[in-house]
Specification:
By secondary structure, this protein is of the alpha+beta class. The protein has four domains: 1-54 and 280-421, no CATH class; 64-271, no CATH class; 472-546 and 734-874, no CATH class; 556-722, no CATH class. It is built from 26 helices and 24 strands. Strands 15, 16, 17, 18, 19, 20, 21, 22, 23 and 24 form a ten-stranded mixed sheet that branches. A hairpin with a 2-residue loop joins strand 9 (190-195) and strand 10 (198-210). Helix 2 (15-54) packs antiparallel against helix 8, helix 2 (15-54) packs antiparallel against helix 11 (383-409) and helix 8 packs antiparallel against helix 10 (330-371).
């Protein structure tokens, strides 16, 4: 029996419904792929940057706080048993300048790839000191001893010569080949770096390609001779690290103990960190939101597929009855319908993987803005596509199986009936029990997550289960709900409302699922929208209190994950302080440190204003905090406080030049820099404890009458020295652009919910009209007008829409509140929950408008039915 051909014909005969099913699967699958790839890219980019520096080193010697140290006392390390290589390293961030077009060997201009726009700093300026029309890139300079470095860092020389070649001189550099291609540079190109010694020129003598897993996602890496980087950074004799490769037979712990015995005070040896803790903390909140959106996308997909196949089975009852009469077995009918679902699932999964692959670029861009780092695409992996494909096919199978099972159980006589006996066999009490149990379990999971009894990430599963339980309650409550809504709108709907309610109750299962889709879309969209607004409000409150100053001078935007920034020329702070009209000059410096096993970023400030508020405090008062800071006490970022369970009045351990030291915590501040893993310390104490030198940011406050003149002088100074200048307005614009980039991706995800709900409603109304064809014809014969027919179909949409929207608003508020409750344990940011009246009114009205618009086409179709054809329809 050619059941396969019959299945293909049935799919082709209902193109709109088949496309809706495909669309729902595509959304769910693409959400999984995009979320997985974007998160993976961010993680791999951070790991690649670490691997590019640590190479094959099993151990690494560093100073506490990441300060530079004298390398002379460490010469005996290379002679210790078990040590194969001890390679000194000096690493600095810098601004690299490319001036004009580079000319290739054949004389043609090399413009560089389009990736240039992605990697280039957004603060491109025309500078006098570094030539006009100079494009700047933030790079990482590694100063190494070439012969030793080749044994530590795995890379292949693609073109040119090694640094150790005498023909290259001292000022030659090796450049990552992919980075060189994107910037239009080549062998022999001249580049310039902004350093503590101001502008330094160098020639690209070799192009390299990482040979480990970081290949393909590493960029902006520049390798030079150790003494060259020392000279440029005015750090002669200084090192940032000594990387140790051990013999294969040696044990890392034993070698580390031997090294530790000969280390001077202030130095430590440990395994290189292979993961950016800051990046993990920065992306947790976004990933939590994306998981929630993805979960609901899959849930809505399952409901739509189930509803679609439930309708297909209803339309094909006679066909199924004829097939059973002709000898088709129940197993054959079951497999025929399930196969149709799997076909649609397979096509939707393939399309979803393609859409998700490109959608990952949008999420990756949003994450890059959030972390303020460049995130190239991650290397290709089959894992996200397999996971998404499995979920897509499972949802398609689940959605088609139960309608197929119902169809297979029909006897030929039952299938030949014109009117179906019902869609669900469970009683009202059964649905109440099932829905109530699911809701209770969901609430229990949420409670345990918020209280800390289970991982807080399980709260997402609790929310989804709770909403599934509410959908399960609909078949039992739909009669009471439609009666109440119809009575409320009786002044408008009247007789048409009564007819609409009867049609809705005729197919409780289909109507319940349609209402459930509207309910899920409304609740999820409103909840996440409210959460987004709460987070934006929190960030705005933070930067209004924590970022104070009229003007900011820096070499480049700092890496907010590692705290590293490009070197600023020496003496620049003093020049700014001497400018007429400058009222106050403060400085910022970001240095790495450790508190036990936790990596932290120490934010060093002078705190030299007696009137300024420096913190967005969660614990402590401004006078008490400022008094404590000037005594050498510290203020913790909110995430660090939560992770270490430390609060005002406690003490935090910190590795310093004097060994492990405990510092008193005087306050906790809301913080977004470095993922909130920050510790604020006054400059004099930071220099004593961590040997902190240099400046990352100069914060300038000008006298009100001299604002314009000071701005002009600072701009001129920055142009002459190749520095980056920002006014307060410029900096706030950067922050707002960052927020807009992150929020834009999430709003796009939320908009899909309304689209899916609209398609689901159209599908149900179309099916209702098909079943009412003869009834509509009879109503038209007894003088019912076309306007009344339109009103009847619109009434069906309004009844189902309002039943889904109103509870959706309430659950949306609950979701927003729950997300805020779980934010503190997950991210350390205490986000205050707030109700937005305009959102609670505007969102339901917009969703209701979507419902009305979705009903227009089916209503018009019903009003235009041919009477003679309608009366003959069975």
């Amino acid at each position: 029996m050619p059941l396969r051909r019959l299945s293909i014909r049935e799919i082709q005969s209902r193109p709109a419904r088949s496309l809706l099913t495909l669309f729902s699967i595509v959304i769910g699958v693409s959400a999984i792929v995009a979320t997985y790839l974007a998160s993976d890219s961010a993680t791999l980019a951070q790991m690649a940057m670490v691997r590019a520096v640590t190479g094959n080193a099993a151990l690494e010697i560093e100073a506490v706080g990441g300060a530079s140290f004298d390398g002379k006392p460490l010469e005996p390390v290379a002679k210790l048993p078990g040590v194969a290589v001890a390679s000194p390293l000096l690493r600095r961030y810098s601004n690299m300048t490319v001036v004009g077009k580079q000319i290739s060997q054949n004389g043609e201009p090399n413009e560089g790839a389009s990736q240039t726009e992605a990697i280039a700093e957004r603060d491109v300026e025309s500078t006098a000191g570094m030539d006009k029309a100079a494009t700047r890139y933030r790079v990482q300079l590694l100063g190494v001893i070439p012969d030793l470095d080749r044994k530590v860092r795995g890379y292949t020389l693609v073109e040119g010569k090694e640094l150790g070649d005498p023909a290259n001189g001292d000022d030659g550099v090796l450049m990552d080949a992919s980075f060189a291609k994107s910037t239009g540079l080549m062998l022999g190109s001249e580049v310039r770096f902004l350093t503590k010694s101001y502008v330094q020129s160098a020639k690209v003598v070799g192009l390299i390609k990482p040979s480990d897993a970081s290949a393909g996602i590493q960029s902006g890496l520049i390798v030079a001779k150790l003494r060259t980087v020392q000279r440029w950074s005015r750090s002669v004799g200084k090192l940032d690290a000594v990387q140790i490769v051990i013999d294969k037979s040696a044990k890392p712990d034993e070698v580390a103990a031997a090294v530790r015995n000969i280390l001077p005070p202030g130095l430590s040896v440990r395994k290189p960190t292979m993961r950016s803790q800051m990046a993990d903390e920065s992306t947790i909140a976004m990933q939590q939101g994306l998981r929630l959106a993805t979960g609901f996308a899959l849930l809505i997909s399952a409901f739509i597929i189930y509803n679609t196949f439930q309708m297909n089975v209803g339309e094909r009852r006679r066909q199924l009855g004829i097939l059973r009469s002709m000898g088709a077995t129940r197993k054959q009918l079951l497999w025929m319908i399930v196969r149709e679902g799997l076909w649609l699932g397979l096509i939707g999964t393939i399309l979803g993987c393609i859409v998700g692959h490109f959608g990952a670029a949008i999420l990756r861009s949003s994450t890059a803005r959030l972390l303020q780092i460049e995130i190239p695409p991650s290397p290709w992996s089959i894992a996200p596509y397999l996971i998404a494909s499995g979920c897509g096919l499972f949802v398609a199978l689940l959605g088609a199986f139960f309608p197929a099972l119902r169809a297979a159980r029909l006897s030929p006589s039952e299938a030949m009936r014109v009117v179906a006996t019902g869609e669900f066999g469970s009683s009202r009490a059964g649905w109440l029990c099932l829905g109530g149990t699911a809701m209770a379990i969901g609430f229990a999971i949420q409670f345990l997550s918020v209280s800390g009894a289970v991982n807080v990430r399980h709260a997402v599963a609790g929310v989804i289960l709770m909403k599934v339980g509410m959908v399960f309650l609909l078949p039992a409550l739909i009669g009471d709900l439609t009666r109440f809504v119809a009575w409320t709108l009786s002044f408008f709907l009247r007789t048409e409302g009564m007819l609409a309610r009867r049609q809705i109750l005729r197919h409780r299962g289909r109507s319940s699922l349609t209402i459930g889709i509207v309910f899920l879309a409304m609740g999820t969209g409103l909840g996440m929208a409210s959460t987004i607004l709460d987070n934006i409000r929190n960030v705005e409150g933070w930067y209004r209190r924590a970022i104070i100053g009229d003007f900011f001078v820096r070499a480049a935007m700092p890496d907010m994950n590692s705290g590293q920034s490009a070197d600023m020329p020496d003496g620049l702070t003093e020049k700014v302080m001497e400018m007429p009209g400058v009222e106050l000059v403060d400085t910022l410096r970001f240095v790495r440190a450790r508190s036990g096993e936790t990596s932290v970023v120490v934010v060093v400030r002078k705190f030299n204003s007696g009137t300024q508020d420096y913190f967005d405090l969660i614990e402590g008062t401004e006078p008490e905090v400022m008094l404590g800071v000037r005594r050498g006490e510290v203020v913790l970022g909110s995430v660090l406080s939560e992770r270490m369970n430390l609060h005002a009045g406690d003490s935090i351990p910190l590795e310093t030049n004097e060994g492990a030291t405990t510092l008193k915590v005087v306050g906790v501040t809301n913080e977004y820099i470095a993922g909130g893993l920050t510790l604020y310390l006054e400059a004099d104490y930071a220099k004593k404890l961590l040997n902190v030198e240099g400046t990352d940011v100069i914060v300038v406050k000008a006298k009100e009458a001299d604002l314009l003149s000071v701005e002009k002088k600072l701009r001129t100074l920055c142009e002459e020295s190749g520095m980056m200048f920002q006014s307060y307005v410029d900096l706030i614009t950067v922050i707002r652009d960052t927020l807009n980039g992150v929020v834009g991706g999430l709003w796009a995800v939320l908009a899909l919910g309304s689209v899916i709900a609209a398609f689901g409603l159209i599908n149900t109304l179309a099916m209702n009209i098909l079943e009412q064809t003869r009834e509509i014809g009879m109503l038209r014969v007894v003088a019912m007008t076309r306007w009344q027919i339109r009103k009847m179909i619109l009434a069906q949409a309004l009844l189902m829409g309002l039943i889904g929207i109103v509870p959706g608003v309430l659950t949306g508020v609950w979701i927003a509140y729950l997300i805020n409750l779980t934010t503190m344990p997950v991210t350390g940011h205490a986000i205050q929950f707030q109700i937005y009246p305009w959102l609670l009114i505007g969102a339901p009205l917009i969703e209701l408008l979507v419902v009305v618009i979705a009903a227009l086409v089916p209503a018009e179709r019903a009003a235009r039915l041919n009477l003679s054809s309608a009366l003959q329809y069975e």
